[in-house]
Write a structure and sequence with these properties.
single chain; Histidine-containing Protein, Chain: A; alpha+beta; 3 helices; four-stranded antiparallel β-sheet; 94 residues; 4 strands; globular; 26% strand
Length: 94
């Protein structure tokens, strides 16, 4: 197993911020990978596979953080999660 950590900065761009629906998208995406995935946001951190932990990170538009992964497929996993943030989780943003 590759123990190298891959990380990328992310920011919440959608108007509603991180709430239940985006948290579900993150969890669903994270569960498609075998690596450990952690989101650091708003002074907290969460396992991207845990809906309860993700919901505890609810954050407003403009909040910045970091997604990091360790293990097989880490780079692809980080890219997939970061893409959700960049796309505003499919919600409106400005």
């Amino acid at each position: 197993m590759n123990d190298a950590v891959v990380s990328r900065s992310v920011a919440i761009v959608n108007a509603q911020g991180l709430h239940a629906r985006p948290a579900c998208l993150i969890v669903k995406t994270a569960n498609g990978f075998d690596c450990e995935l952690t989101l650091h946001l708003g002074g907290g951190s969460a396992d991207c596979r845990s809906i309860m932990e993700m919901i505890m990170l609810v954050s407003p538009q403009g909040a910045a953080g970091r997604v990091e992964a360790r293990g097989a497929g880490a780079e692809a996993a980080v890219e997939a999660i970061a893409s959700l943030f960049a796309d505003g989780f499919g919600e409106a943003y400005d």
